[in-house]
Amino acid sequence: PAIAEGVTGKELDRDVWTQLRTLSKENAEGVAQHLVMVAVRLAENELDGALAHAETAVRRAGRVPAAREALGVVAYRLGDFARALAEFRTVRRISGSAHLLPLMVDSERGLGRLDRALELAGSPDAKRLEPSEQAELTIVVAGVRRDLGQFDAAILGLERAAYGPPRPWSARIYYAYADALVAKGDLEAARRWFAMASAMDSELETDAAERLDELDGVTIIESDAGADASTDPDADPT
C-alpha cells in the first residue's frame, strides 16, 4: 500500500523506534512509515487501508512488537477477535508487556468466552497494568458482567473507580458507570453521571452529551427550511 505524501516514519514514538533498531536502516524506515499509515487510516476509519499497512509491517518486521500490536488493533477494530487475540498474545510473548490485557479480555468477550475473559482479567498480569490501563480493564470487565446478567457486579466494579479522584480517563469511567445504571433502570443517577462524563470529556471520546439529551427527552432536528426560503425567489418573506 502506498505511503501518503509527507509521511516519513519519524512521527513514531521513541519507544517504537527502539524496537525498529533490530532491522536494517532501510527496512526500519519503511516499516515505520507503514505503522504511521496504520494510525492515519484508523483515524480516518479506513479499516481496509489500515489492515493493508499493518499486514505489510508484519511481513517486514514480524518480530517487532509494535508491528504485531498494530495488526492486532486493526483486527480488533474490524471485529476479527480471534486474529486480534492471537496478535496480542504474540506481543505479550515477544515484549513481556501486559499493556494489551484490556483488549485481550475484550477480545475474549467478543468471542463469547465470558468465563475465560474474567479469568484473564484476574490474572497476575492485571496487577502490572498502569492506572490508565487498569481503568480500561475495569470498563471491559463491567461489560463482561453485564453480558452475564450480573448488573450489580458491573455497577459495583465501576462505582469504585468512579468515586475515586478525577483522572484523565475519568470521563470514560463515568460514561461506563452511567451506561450500567441505565441498564439497571436507575435513570436519575445515570443522568448525573452522564453529565459528569460530558463535562470531563474535553476530547469527545464519548457521546455522553447525546446520551444526556436522550435522557432529557431532547431531540435535535436538522432542517434546511431556512436555507430554502432564502434562495427561493417566490418564498413568502413573512
Which helices and strands appear, and what pairs or packs with what?
Layout (H helix, E strand, L loop, with lengths): L13 H7 L4 H19 L3 H14 L4 H14 L2 H15 L5 H10 L3 H8 L9 H17 L3 H12 L7 H15 L2 H14 L7 H9 L8 H7 L7
Helix pairs in contact: 2-3, 2-4, 3-4, 4-5, 5-6, 6-7, 6-8, 7-8, 8-9, 8-10, 9-10, 10-11, 11-12
Q: Care to describe what's here?
A:
With 238 residues, the protein is mainly alpha-helical. Helix content is 68%, strand content 0%. The chain has 13 helices and no strands. The longest helix has 19 residues. The C terminus is likely disordered.
Descriptive tags:
13 helices; single chain; 238 residues; 68% helix; mainly alpha
Summarize the structure.
With 238 residues, the chain is mainly alpha-helical. It contains 13 helices and no strands.
* Main beta sheet: none
N-to-C CA distance: 57 Å
Order of helices and strands: HHHHHHHHHHHHH
Q: What ranges have pLDDT less than 50 throughout 5 or more consecutive residues?
A: 229-238
